[in-house]
Amino acid sequence: MTREVTVTGYGVRTAFGEGAEALRRGVFAGVPAFRPTTRFDTEPYRTAVAAVAPDGADGADAVEGWALRDALRRCGDEALGMAGLGAGAEAAVLLGVAGDNRSVTRYWRRAGDSVSSELSDVGRGSVVAGRAHAVAPQMSQPRAPVGALPAPESNSLADAVPAQLAELLADGLGLIGTRLAFTNACVASAAAIIHACRLISSGRIDVAVCAGGYLVEEETFGKFDSGRALSRDGMVRPFSADRSGLLLGDGVASVVLESAEHARWRGARPLASVVGWGAATDAHHIAQPHPEGIGLALAARQALRQAGDPDGASLDYVNAHGTGTKYNDGAETRGLRAAFGKRAESIPVSSTKSTTGHLLEAAGVVEFVITMLALLDGVLPPTAGYGSPDPECDLDYVPNAPRPADPRRALTINAAFGGANTALVLERP
Amino acid sequence: MTTTHETALRFSLGILATATAAHDTGRDDDIALPKLPGFVESAFSPLAYEVSSRCLTAHPGDGARTAVALASLAGDTTTADLASRRMVSGRVHNPLLFMQATANSVLGHMSREFGITGQMFSLSTLVDPLSELLSMADVLLDDPELDRVLVLGVELGGGERVTAVHRELAATSGRSGPAAALPASAGLAAAVLLGRPGDAAGPQVSIRSTGSTRASAGRLGSIQSLFELAAAHAEPRTEAEPRTETETHPHAHQ
C-alpha cells in the first residue's frame, strides 16, 4: 500500500516570533534575526550572537515562556488547530529534539563546582585560544556553595530526556498513539518527518504530528564555540566566499502529516503533499561532511526517485542545509551537482539559516514549513548575508533579496554530524 | 501519563547476528572497555561500536543496503555531564566533547568503518527500546533499497544527575527506576542485525511481535529485553543447523 502524504496543519516559532507572518517578515524578507544574546554570559566565547527571540521593551532575551516543552506544546496546538484536530485524536507524535539542556546546566550549577577537582584533564592543552581564554575563565553566574546539593525541581530535570519531551507533548496535546523522539542532531526532526511519511504511506497510521525544537542555551553554544564552528562576524553567509561559520537560533515547529484519504474523509484541506523522502549517510567522517556531498546526493536522489522525477526536472526550489561553514557549503553544492547534474544550475537554492540561524534538531521541521510557505506564497526566501561568489559554490543562491516565483515542487535538505543526510520533496496542491 | 501503544510488525524479521557487551556492571561477562580512537571518558560509544562491529563482522553485507538505529534513554549522558560540569566550573569547552556529545558521532564512525550509506539515526526511549527498534526495522524493511537493519541499545550507569532524572521520571510516570544503580562508569549494550526472513543465507530465526505495552515493557532507561534477545541468539550456529521457524518472542510482549 502506498498512500499520499499530505500536510494539513503547522505551527512555527522562531526568533522572528510566532507563525507564518513572522517568517514572512524575517526569513522571506531576508532580514537576519541575529543579535547579542543576554540569555547567558557570553564573555568566555568568541561571539555573543545568536538568533534569539527578543522579549520586547528592554531588549532582553525571552527566556521565560520559552521553556522548550511549552514552546513545543504551543506549536503543536497551533498545528492541530489548523488541521482541525484536537484532543482525543489518534495521531503519532514524532519529535526531533536533544532534550532541554538548560536543565542539565541548572543541575550542575546548583551542585556547585565541588566536583571540578574530579574532572579529568582530557583535552587540556588542546582547547583553542579564544577571546577570553588568555585569562582565567570567569564564572558566568554565581556558584552555589561548594558541596551544595541540587535543589529539588518540579519535572524540569527530566526535560533533558528527549523521550520525556515527546511524552509531555503527546499528553499535552491529548493525542493517542506512538510517541517517539529522534535525537540525531541536525537531521532529527527531518528524520521524524521521514518516519511519519513511511508510517502513513504504508498504511500503518493515518495521522502524525511531527515536531522539533531547539532553544539557544549555553551548553550547545559553548560546544559549537569550542569546535570553532561559530561565525566570527555576527552573520551567517551561506555559499558566500566570506562565510566564516554558523550561528545558532531559536526554532520550534510542528506539522500535521496525514494520509490524503484521511484528510478527505474528514474534510480537511491539504496545504501541500510530501511526495518524496530520502535519507543516507556519507561513510566518510565523524564530524565533517563528505567533500563531494555523496550522502546528500544519495538522499536527494532517493527522494526524487520516489517523487517520480529522478532527474529533478520538476524541481523549482531547493531549501539547502547551507550552514555557512567552509566545510558544508562547498560539499553541499557538489552534492547537488552530483544529484542533478547540469540541471542543478537552473534550480534556485537558498539557505534560510542565513536569517533564522542554525536550529539544530528543529532545522528539519522549521525549514519544512519555510519550504511549504515558499510553495504557497510564490516567493523564494533569499540567502541573506551573501557577499561575493565562491568558486566552489557556483549555483543560483537567491542572494539577499526574495524572488517572486511560481514553484510547484521543492526539495528541503538537512545534514548532520556523523554524515547523516535527509531530503524531503514537497508539492503544492 | 498514559503511554500504552500497540506494536504490530507487518513482517517477520530475521535475526542475522547479535552481540552484547557489558562493562563495569559486576556481571560475570563484563569486559574491559574497548578502545575506540577519539572517543574518551565514556562507555557509550565504545560499547555501541563494539556490539555493532561484532554483528556487522559476523554477517557482512552491502553497506548501501544497511540502516542503523540506536536507542538509549538520553544518549551519552556521561559525556554530556562531563562537558556541563566543566562549563559550570569555569573551564572552557573541550572540542573532543563537542564531537562526542551526540550519538551521531559513533554512528558516523561506524558508517565509515563498514561503508554504511543507508540511513542511520538515534532514538530516545524511556523504557525498554526493543519494541520501538523492532517496529523501526519493520518499517525500514518496507524499503526495497534496504536489506538489513542493525538495531542497538546502550544503557549507562550515568552518575548522580541521571539518578536524579530517574527519580523524577519514576515519580511522575509511575514507572520503576533501575533495579540497582550501576556504577557511573558502567554500561551495557546490545545489538541485533535484522533482515527479511529468507533473504539472507545462513542461520536465522524470526520474530513476530503482535503487541506490546510500553508501561510494562521495562524499567526506565533499561535495555534489558533487547539485551536478553541478543544474548539468547548469540550462540554461533552452523549452516547445517539453521533455525527458520517463526516464533513469537516473549521479550516483545512484556
UniProtKB/TrEMBL annotation, chain A:
Protein's recorded name: Ketosynthase family 3 (KS3) domain-containing protein
Positions in coiled-coil regions: none
Signal peptide residues on this chain, from the entry's feature table: none
Protein family per UniProt: Belongs to the thiolase-like superfamily. Beta-ketoacyl-ACP synthases family.
UniProt cross-references to Gene3D superfamilies, sorted A to Z: 3.40.47.10
GO cellular component: cytosol
UniProt GO molecular function: 3-oxoacyl-[acyl-carrier-protein] synthase activity
PROSITE patterns given in the database record: KS3_2
Short name of any one Pfam family annotated for the protein: ketoacyl-synt
From TrEMBL, chain B:
GO MF annotation: an example: acyltransferase activity, transferring groups other than amino-acyl groups
SUPFAM superfamilies tied to this protein: Thiolase-like
Basic and acidic residues bias: start-end ranges: 234-254
Region (Disordered): 233-254
InterPro entries: Thiolase-like
Protein name per Swiss-Prot or TrEMBL: Beta-ketoacyl synthase N-terminal domain-containing protein
Species, as recorded: Streptomyces lacrimifluminis
